Amino acid sequence: MKIIDVIKVASKSLTSNKLRSMLTMLGIIIGVAAVIIMIAVSSGTETAIADQINSLGANLVFVMSSFSQGGAGGGMGASTGGLVYSDADAIANSVPHVAGVAVEQNTTQTIKYGNIVLEDVSILGTTPDFTKVREIELKEGRFLNDQELERSTRTAILGATIAKELFGDTYPIGQKISVGTLKLTVVGVFEEKGLVSGVDYDARVYVPITLVFDKLMNSQFSRIAGDRVRMIYVTVDDKENIDAVILQINLLLSKLHDVPLESPDFQISTQQDIIQTQSATTESFRILLAWVAGVSLIVGGIGIMNIMLVSVTERTREIGIRQAVGATPQDIQSQFLTEALILSLVGGLIGVIFGITGSWVFSKFGDMPTVVDPFSIVLAFGSAAAVGILFGYLPANKAAKLDPIVALRHE
Amino acid sequence: MTDSVIIRTDQLKKIYQMGEIEVPALNGVSITIQEGEFVAIMGPSGSGKSTLMNILGCLDSPTDGQYYLDDQDVSKLNRAQLAHIRNEKLGFIFQSYNLLPRMSAVENVTLPMMYNKAAAGNQVEMTKKAEELLGIVGLGDRMHHQPKELSGGQQQRVAIARALINDPVLVLADEPTGNLDTKSANEIMEILHNLHQSGRTIVMVTHEPDIAEQTQRIIAVRDGLVELDHENGRE
Ligand SMILES: Nc1ncnc2c1ncn2[C@@H]1O[C@H](COP(=O)(O)OP(=O)(O)OP(=O)(O)O)[C@@H](O)[C@H]1O
Ligand SMILES: [Mg+2]
User: Fold this and answer.
1) In chain A, which residue's Cα lies nearest the Cα of B110?
2) ipTM for this prediction
3) Residue A30 — φ and ψ, nearest 5°?
């Protein structure tokens, strides 16, 4: 029998019972749509995380203090303390391809304006380069300047949330707020940035880092710590130079801190590292989703097998007639296999359409970032076809094995 | 002489195994049928007529013995090979018509061609031939009716057209008039006579003596054996 005829016969018998064919395909439709939507949601989430992290600034390198090394170099005092403020200058002055350096040292303080009191607010001491390095925009006023840094001027720039909580509709620039025991003048307010990798950029107050060193470290220990900094941000001029810059910083700081290269008192990471850490957490979730989707595809396949087995029994007489006029066992097998395949492929196609529309609906109305991966379409459609062949095989074989005489006598 | 022999069987035996019990349906049937003959097979119920027809029609294989169809030993062929023989050399007409219910008369008639290597694929040619044959059996105006829209006699005529579509060397009919009233039965017999006249070899099972009387030769079967085999003198 010609393939085209096999397909015609199979589709004719499927369309002669449309409701049943639809219901049989439902499992495959749901399975395929689930695969596509789940992959779209998880890769959408991943892309969103990467975008967020990248939005903190391009080609960033993070240098963090790590205090765990103790007396690695056998030395004591300064060499065990991690990063200090002057490291930032050293990096800016002697490492090539560095476009900007910003420093961060945190503390928490109670802040007040009028009778509004906010406790445990994160105060971030930093340098004028911060806005350039982290790509945060100001909504009002301006950021720190070099003079303020040098003189530990009592100025503050507010995160969007803090500004709203303290001032409401009042114009904040020029107002004085209390931070701990100090009175600071507000010179700027940031645009909203939101939560990035667990840090709320809007709930912070930014001040000159020198002010933190001089007046805002509240514990005795911190005072001893002197001009220690938590983090130095380094912007590299070009993506290609990132590795070279990391190596240079490693060499430079190990020498400055007098620690061995292999066990430094600092840690260097890139945005890529952070994205990868974040992806690892979504990865296991994604594997779970893939299993759920896979299982629903298999359930769909079993649905096809079930209906095909019923269909073979119902159509025993037809099989007998076809055999009597010359259909070989293989002809019969192809016919039923083709039916199963058409069910799964058409189901797969409808599933792809549902999957793409579903992903779109999720991102449009569900506030969930989705990215439809072309590979997921191929994967889902291919699995549907495989399921069709796999689960169509048993019924098709049963049909092919029927004895013509027995089949013809079947009522 | 052998070139005009269509059927030659040699001690055909068929034993059905029903669990522990063996049911012999054929006990050694040897017959020879020449090209162009019109043969009636008669016998009481359960005598083995259908069993013999099924083996002659390559729907079943004998337990023992030889069957030469058109000079080819078909008693040991596998299922696929038998399917090809049925398709290319045989036309089978059943008591219960056995048409596919959701197909039109034309589609039912073309069915054997779909499984025919030489003919398959040429839809126009197949339809043309089917329409021609439906014209010959007198259904020129019922081409696109489904079986449920046709009378028993009309359905059997569709079945005859289907049996002829691949130009078989042998037409087998197991009680083709068994389900029909006298008038329809006579119409079917007239078609079979015409086929015989135009040179077809026909073997037909029947219960009715007056229908058997219309053939050239009667083979009487009893208890799985040939009891009588005689020329009928008619025609
Ligand atoms: N599939 C089978 N399994 C077991 N026994 C069978 C089978 N088919 C036929 N028989 C037995 O073989 C014998 C011959 O049956 P067959 O159908 O050939 O009779 P028949 O001459 O065609 O009868 P009828 O005139 O009633 O159609 C019977 O005894 C029947 O019971
Ligand atoms: Mg019978």
Assistant:
1) A325
2) 0.95
3) -65, -45
